[in-house]
Amino acid sequence: MPELGGYGGDVTFVGGYVTNVKEWNIDYGVEALDATDFASAGEGDVVRGIRSWTGTYKCSLDDTVVIIAPGLVGAAVFTATGARTYTGTMMLTNVSFGASTAGLMEVTCSFRSKTLLAIN
Prior knowledge:
Elements: E1 6-13, E2 16-18, E3 21-34, E4 46-60, E5 73-80, E6 84-98, E7 106-113, E8 118-119
């Protein structure tokens, strides 16, 4: 049985607060820069590059949700059970809207880090 489950996700922008967040994911990684040279004796060699985080969040739209656009910068706080939080500043890179006859109108937002991800 998993020890952690997601139960919250808050996203705040200068113009307002995004509500109805229902799903989120974060990919946290580092670039592996190729440092292979002739002294590597035929073995590949890498060094650590820039750390960054990317991800998406999904929310259902209603008349209280602030409409958002690519390029917008905001603060994000994503929470998992056990009081573990993932916080940072991010920039929206893509926004996808969708609707169906059998469900709520939803928006999926992709983002990239502006500051280092803090995990508490």
